[in-house]
Design brief:
2 domains, two-stranded antiparallel ribbon, 4 helices, about 15% helix, binds iron/sulfur cluster, metal ion binding, Fe-S_Ferredoxin, 4Fe-4S, iron
């Protein structure tokens, strides 16, 4: 029921269970999945069990200026650090990241991916 309720189509059935694909699109935390669940099992605290990380595939690493991820992040979790001799580098503050995936959905280089929300990643 949650899969059908999600307006962003980021929930799928995998091996008979519901799974979230954090790279299929952005979670807007609309709460439709939780509202549709007759068992009340979906946490609605506005954070996922993952955070995002920016990989070396980022266009900036190749000297191409880009601030797309910074511009779309609703939590202002991505900032651009000035550096000598190249475009500003994006930095992602995992402690502010909800895992909504707005950044990964918008990244033109497919450079942002989800990792588990564990102390070494936050
Ligand atoms: S949107 Fe992608 S390519 Fe652009 S700065 Fe962010 S990580 Fe780099
Ligand atoms: S997943 Fe969402 S909150 Fe986290 S950095 Fe990307 S856009 Fe910002």
């Amino acid at each position: 029921m949650c899969v059908d309720a999600c307006p962003e189509h980021i929930l799928h059935i995998t091996k008979g269970l519901v799974a979230l694909d954090p790279e299929a699109g952005e979670c807007t935390f609309c709460g439709e999945c939780a509202a549709a669940c007759p068992e009340g099992v979906i946490a609605a605290d506005g954070a996922m069990a993952h955070v995002m990380q920016i990989s070396d595939d980022c266009l900036v690493k190749a000297g191409i200026a880009c601030m797309t991820c910074r511009d779309v992040c609703p939590e202002t979790a991505i900032s651009m650090r000035p550096r000598i001799g190249g475009p500003f580098l994006p930095e992602l503050d995992a402690t502010s990241c909800t895992g909504c995936a707005a950044c990964s959905a918008a990244c033109p280089a497919d450079a942002i991916h989800a990792v588990e929300r564990v102390p070494e990643n936050v």
